Amino acid sequence: MRMVDLINKKKEGKALSKDEIEFIVSGYVKGSIPDYQMSAFLMTVYFKGMNRAEISNLTLSYVNSGNTVDLSGIKGIKVDKHSSGGVGDKISLIVIPLVAAVGVPVAKMSGRGMGHTGGTIDKLEAIEGFNTNLDYNTFIDNVNKYKMAITGQTANLTPADKKTYALRDVTGSVDSIPLIASSIMSKKIAAGADAIVLDVKVGSGAFMKSLDNAKELAETMVAIGKALNRKTIAIITNMNEPLGHEIGNANEVREAMEVLKGNGAEDETTVALTIAAYMVLLGGAFKDFDSAYEKLKDIIKSGKAIEKFKEFIKIQGGDTEIIDKPDKLPNSKYHVEIKAKESGYIEAIKADNIGVAAMLLGAGRRTKDDKIDFAAGITVVKKYGDRVNEGDAVFILHTNMGNCTEAKNIVETSFKIGKEKPEAIKYIYEIIK
């Protein structure tokens, strides 16, 4: 086989075989296929696409390029979830203890975040002492004993995807649904779960801006999961405004605890319960979605959910006093209010801009080597549809930086106030099975 022949084949819109895809991926990882040929191939996929079999084979080649996690030592159906990313997305912090509370094992490997805030691992590290680097045996034992554990991703998980993504990032081929889907699903498959619930976000604060594109991505990933013998469901959720009220690592831990105590905002509570309900459904704990959803609501109401989160913190070495004393979490020095200049109703929030502002305050990373300020972030005081009076605080910026002018200017131009109350929005658009 020659790489140039395969580039030409795909350029003509023809499907590549499993062996041809494996030749490309393994050759690129080994270095026998240079960056310039891989770049040409990726751009050809961008324009010509791939069929479902090709995408599944690309995913499997990514998986086979490195280590996989063996979860066979865990009893029961292991369930995982993935979010395509959004502003204020602390759903994993909520669903891990919720799902574990009904006896479905959650063995989660997660990464650090780039962009507006840290990933789930970064958020949990805002809790003093929380160990996100469990050894394999402890990870397996915790899931068997307590039905939950989280650890950082291993260095050699899907190296072909990491190398390919870096190339996509500098060659303008990031926003290709076949390449996005295979990238996401390869990591989930390699992490060893039996069942996967995908949270595909759509809107101004999400990677997918249109519902049609989000649906195509969701359908593609579900098809990959099923082709590779994983129970898979995708939930398309709204990201036209930040999820909940808090953005930033420690702030999101605080808010996740409020959801688990039954005091959460309606949007994030609805999304978290929906995702958790499908996770326990795939895990075999319930036969229908409605029963699962109601049971999870009862677990929150009874206090079992927040107790399970406390147990989660304890078994991973964290300070459990934050449950009753959330002020023990990092707090910033400065708090700057962004006030309404007129009265009316919040009719639009540019979630992506709010995310950028949070990153500028120190909550996220511009580069992978940047250090996160756990205390930094933004509180969304008024959300879509809320009534505001002139002079009311709409956002509060939290930072340890003496000068936050750039972030302040961004936030001030990232929301719109109208005279009429806008129509209610959906939190969940569609379920793809």
Structure explained in plain terms:
- It is an enzyme of class 2 (transferase).
- Homodimer.
- Its EC number is 2.4.2.2.
- With 433 residues, the protein is α/β, with parallel strands linked by helices.
- The chain has three domains: 3-49, Transferase, Pyrimidine Nucleoside Phosphorylase, Chain C (Transferase, Pyrimidine Nucleoside Phosphorylase, Chain A, domain 3, Up-down Bundle); 79-323, 3-Layer(aba) Sandwich (Pyrimidine Nucleoside Phosphorylase, Chain A, domain 2); 330-418, Alpha-Beta Complex (Aldehyde Oxidoreductase, domain 3), CATH 3.90.1170.
- Helices cover 45% and strands 15% of the residues.
- The chain has 16 helices and 13 strands.
- The protein has helices at residues 3-11, 18-30, 35-48, 52-64, 91-101, 120-124, 136-146, 159-171, 177-190, 211-227, 249-260, 266-282, 289-302, 304-315, 351-361, 405-412; strands at residues 79-83, 106-110, 148-152, 195-202, 231-238, 246-247, 334-339, 344-349, 377-380, 387-388, 393-399, 415-418, 428-432.
- A four-stranded mixed beta sheet has the order 1-4-5-13, sandwiched between helices. A four-stranded antiparallel beta sheet has the order 6-9-11-7, sandwiched between helices. A three-stranded antiparallel beta sheet has the order 10-8-12, with no helix packed on it.
- The radius of gyration is 22 Å and the shape is globular.
- The two termini are 37 Å apart.
- The mean pLDDT is 95.
How do the strands and helices of this protein lay out in sequence?
Layout: H1 3-11, H2 18-30, H3 35-48, H4 52-64, E1 79-83, H5 91-101, E2 106-110, H6 120-124, H7 136-146, E3 148-152, H8 159-171, H9 177-190, E4 195-202, H10 211-227, E5 231-238, E6 246-247, H11 249-260, H12 266-282, H13 289-302, H14 304-315, E7 334-339, E8 344-349, H15 351-361, E9 377-380, E10 387-388, E11 393-399, H16 405-412, E12 415-418, E13 428-432
Parallel strand pairs: 1-4, 2-3, 4-5
Antiparallel strand pairs: 5-13, 6-9, 7-11, 8-10, 8-12, 9-11
Helix pairs in contact: 1-3, 2-4, 2-8, 3-8, 4-9, 4-10, 5-11, 5-12, 5-14, 9-10, 12-13, 15-16
